[in-house]
Amino acid sequence: MEGSQKTTYGAMAAGGPEDNRFAVRPPLRILLVGRTGSGKSATGNSILCRPAFDSRLQAQTVTSACQEEMGTWDGRTILVIDTPPIFEAKAWTQEMYRDIGDCYLRSAPGPHVLLLVTQLGRFTAQDTMAVRRVKEVFGAETMRHMVILFTHKEDLGAESLDEYVQNTDNRGLQALVRECGRRYCAFNNQAAGQEQHGQLAELRAVLDRLERELEGCFLSNDLFLWAHVLRQGGDAAGQEDHSRYLAQVRQQVEKQRRELREMESCCLCRAFLRAQHWVGSHVVISACLIICGLIFLVLLINFTLLQGK
């Protein structure tokens, strides 16, 4: 059951194509991900147009537990889920697995979009690690559902966001933009009035396009199904059910971490084979490169000896 699942568009949708005009669009589930301090909570407040999440400017994370808040976009319900610091380079503790399990529960049966929040002009090694952790926590399939949201849009000045992304020399960011299918937008989380409505419209356009591309699918795997069943059980779910669920959380994450390592190993092997094939098919060029390298080494050794005299 890995991959994407199609959403159910209400009871009328089952009647056939002619009934689709009466279908009610399901809630849009948006999961906020990214490193600590990137502005996830403030971004959630901008999306909902109200101070739903606690957001303060400080070094330590404000969000200590997964939190969900609801709003509406033109009559459609949206569910925004803010996440605790589970995407950092730190040990996989029992507390972290509990937080991950809570994120699955609150976004079950699966998020339509993972909104990766990062600060404009400050995509660092921490952000790269956060992206890797997102893949480990939710699976590599997440990249099909990911949208990059840059905070501090006001820092763009006269430059457009497309120009900034196109001209950046940050290779990690370039790779991420390609991997996300060039889906991105930017927020000024201090914006109000027309500016706030304008940037929300830009985000909604990106999400609408993503929904069309995925035909209404949301991210799903076995653990999301477990979480959905447990959540629907409500208070009837006992301590034993929760214990089994937490065991499933650990197993699912360990499986996804293992699959990610295997996928990366395969990529390295393919890159080595391509290089080997290129060398084999360009014997003359390869020989010239080797000779040039040897000449350079001889000259470098001679230069070093002369400097030593």
TrEMBL record:
Keywords: Coiled coil, GTP-binding, Membrane, Nucleotide-binding, Transmembrane, Transmembrane helix. SUPFAM superfamilies: P-loop containing nucleoside triphosphate hydrolases (SSF52540). Pfam families: AIG1. Residues 193-220 form a coiled coil. The gene is GIMAP5. Belongs to the TRAFAC class TrmE-Era-EngA-EngB-Septin-like GTPase superfamily. AIG1/Toc34/Toc159-like paraseptin GTPase family. IAN subfamily. GO terms for molecular function: GTP binding. InterPro entries: G_AIG1, GIMA/IAN/Toc, P-loop_NTPase. Residues 25-228 form the AIG1-type G domain. This is GTPase, IMAP family member 5. The chain crosses the membrane at residues 283-306. PROSITE patterns: G_AIG1 (PS51720).
